[in-house]
């Protein structure tokens, strides 16, 4: 369930490449990727880390502190859609540089649309688990998670607002570049 080391390294390198300062993470789990991204940010950078369960995040919190980046990570325990809506309502549209989506798959499209509004032109949204072990090619009728990702994949190919690159790393990650 956790991002792989190579994925975390790629996300950190992308953050450095675009000189990101503001990052969103939808789905924190143990906080490994939040740590990796925070380490890649400048000292005044911040990660808005969204999750609904603090139990797993408690594993990473001491490591954030030990690494000296806990001041960069703003963990928000509530539905990610609520946090994203609050950011939009607070006037933060097009102020974020990077977003990483890896949470409940049924909500991926909603996360994508909200993150796309929050990310500035030239920013990147990374969407994890886009291959679903190949099941996205022919999702079962009872597998809503895979159906949701299948529909999002089809949408991304045709979305004129972005360019994409799907990478067969881990369970597939799509990099979405906002135009």
Automatic annotation (TrEMBL):
Pfam families: Methyltransf_3 (PF01596). GO terms for molecular function: O-methyltransferase activity; S-adenosylmethionine-dependent methyltransferase activity. CDD domains: AdoMet_MTases. Gene3D superfamilies: Vaccinia Virus protein VP39. PROSITE patterns: SAM_OMT_I. One of its GO terms (biological process) is methylation. The keyword Transferase applies. Keywords: Methyltransferase, S-adenosyl-L-methionine, Transferase. InterPro entries: Cation-dep_OMT, SAM-dependent_MTases_sf, SAM_O-MeTrfase. Belongs to the class I-like SAM-binding methyltransferase superfamily. Cation-dependent O-methyltransferase family. This is Catechol O-methyltransferase domain-containing protein 1. It comes from Pavo cristatus (Indian peafowl).
């Amino acid at each position: 369930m956790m991002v792989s080391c190579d994925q975390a390294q790629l996300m950190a390198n992308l953050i450095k490449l675009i000189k990101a300062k503001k990052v969103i993470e939808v789905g924190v789990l143990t906080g490994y990727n939040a740590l990796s991204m925070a380490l890649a940010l400048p000292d005044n950078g911040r990660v808005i880390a969204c999750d609904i369960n603090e139990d797993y995040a408690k594993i990473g919190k001491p490591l954030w502190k030990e690494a000296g980046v806990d001041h960069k990570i703003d963990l928000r325990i509530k539905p990610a859609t609520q946090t994203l809506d609050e950011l939009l309502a607070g006037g933060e549209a097009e102020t974020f540089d990077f977003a990483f989506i890896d949470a409940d798959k049924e909500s991926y499209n909603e996360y994508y649309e909200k993150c796309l509004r929050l990310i500035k032109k030239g920013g990147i949204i990374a969407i994890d688990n886009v291959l679903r072990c190949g099941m996205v090619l022919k999702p079962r009728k009872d597998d809503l998670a895979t159906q949701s990702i299948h529909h999002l994949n089809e949408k991304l190919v045709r979305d004129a607002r972005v360019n994409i690159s799907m990478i067969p790393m881990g369970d597939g990650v799509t990099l979405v570049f906002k135009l």
